[in-house]
Design brief:
The structure is a homodimer of 298-residue chains. Chain A has 298 residues and is of the alpha/beta class. Helix content of chain A is 28%, strand content 19%. Chains A, B: Belongs to the intradiol ring-cleavage dioxygenase family.
């Protein structure tokens, strides 16, 4: 016979102990089960947070003002509400959750959601050995290449698409920046019969997240810097394989250990090597890609 | 010798167990102790919420869109971010917390914060027996009166100010409504040498909170109605006494049990009695007020 302790109940609150259950119980019979569960849990956490910290009206109104400020700043080119979540680590955590669910369920809809705000479905298809860099004078051109292989057989995979996008040296993606040409710093490549892909891109550079709004205010209050370490976004897809969506980070970047939005994972850190003798590039990144086969058609 | 169990640690998460402490530890050395505590707790609750419910990117982006929408709707006359909190019970809870802190600390700054968004410091001083109702045809005029007494001695208190404000029959306060004259439905009265105050106001009516924005969307998702029960706001002040800030609710209101913003407390429910023979009013509310003396000057 095993013994077990009942879950302990925290009953030492100085505030009305039935209030939160009263608010949660107001949910009507026609709410969906998911809305009932998620919003009920949200109410419980919000109320526990307020009681545990004895949040005052002045503090709460300060937070409401920041929330409204975030909405006023947001438009098609800027999502400040998202950025506020990012600097609190929420996007990175939800990425992890969604990746895990996608790995377990093979849902294409879930997988495509983790592309982030700057992906575009209509990136131009480009031949191998071409460049995605246009009109950038102050970056280090990098020759990025590698072989796409089947994770099980290790044989080269032909016809995989490698979709790549990155920010310019000013920290902006082309759709955020009127100074960049359409589709600058993005392109879609295809592995050849030897599984090989190759293109020219920028060695990415670290940049601050926009800090003239509430996310920046939050960073200031927390005594934190706004910088993200340099990175390149990739999604690799091939029928019969699980898609791979990832960001890869420069091993020499000074913000690797303290990314302002907490997206770095050790496995994603790569080395941009100095090269000589290539008249188009001063750095090289060899990046092998392994695709996991799925059973049956995707 | 007493036995005690160590606090149990929830370690069965499917997700990186060190991520949240990593985010909290990013707070810099110059953050204030209060910001460190409160925002650290906020991060912990946000992350626990996301993990417990396995929030997906699609769900999170839906919430971010609603947050940004709230900000875009907000201006001097409307605070939608506040309203979103209200329908989740947060304002009412934070009122309770702040009231309790105010009662314990006697801080005038804390006390004045609980006046709510529609209070105005510049309400007109009016003589007793006058009316605060202008240009409202569809309401029941109420004769509200009572005696202000010292809670300890039960003797009448002369010279207390009774600041009153209420919404019109369309559910709007005057500063929200271009159809109402400046300072409509608000006034400041003073108790006479017998402690007596008296004025004419509206019998308040229930009204829906604005539901054309994200707060309304949230109510719809939760299968809840948007109505608030009818109420009148009061603040009573006199040097040497603790100020009293309150809302009083009509005992016959159909939404007393399910206020959409959860502000009703049993002690605040009052009866608007039918009267005859007063040519200015059809209802009467006798409302005695007791003020608690403070030691020393405020």
């Amino acid at each position: 016979m095993s013994t077990s302790n009942p879950p302990s109940v925290i009953s030492d609150s100085r505030f009305d102990p039935s209030f939160t259950s009263h608010v949660i119980a107001a949910t009507g019979p026609n709410a969906s089960p998911r809305a009932r569960k998620v919003i009920g849990s949200l109410i419980q956490h919000m109320h526990d947070f307020a009681r545990e910290n004895e949040i005052t009206i002045a503090e709460w109104m300060g937070a409401v003002d920041m929330m409204n400020w975030a909405g006023r700043m947001s438009d098609e080119k800027r999502n400040e509400g998202q950025l506020v979540c990012d600097v609190l680590g929420l996007e990175s955590l939800i990425d992890e959750i969604t990746f895990k669910l996608a790995a377990e369920t093979s849902s294409p809809a879930t997988a495509s959601a983790i592309l982030g705000p700057f992906f575009r479905h209509d990136a131009p298809e480009l031949p191998n050995e071409s460049s995605i860099v246009h009109g950038v004078d102050d970056g280090e051109i990098t020759y990025m290449h590698g072989i796409v292989r089947d994770l099980k057989t290790q044989k080269p995979v032909e016809g995989a698409t490698i979709d790549v996008w990155q920010a310019s040296t000013n920290g902006l993606y082309e759709q955020q920046d009127e100074g960049q040409v359409e589709h600058n710093l993005r392109g879609k490549f295809r592995s050849d019969r030897d599984g090989r892909y190759a293109f020219y891109c920028l060695r990415p550079t670290s940049y601050p997240v926009p800090n003239d709004g509430p996310a920046g205010k939050l960073l200031e209050i927390l005594d934190r810097h706004p910088y993200r370490p340099a990175h390149i976004h990739l999604i690799v897809q091939r029928e019969g394989y699980k898609p791979v969506t990832t960001q890869i980070f420069d091993s020499e970047d000074q913000y690797l250990e303290n990314d302002s939005v907490f997206a770095v994972k050790d496995s994603l850190v790569v080395e941009f090597k100095k090269i000589e003798g290539n008249e188009k590039a001063v750095r090289e990144l060899e990046y092998p890609i392994h695709l996991r086969p799925v059973d049956g058609k995707v």
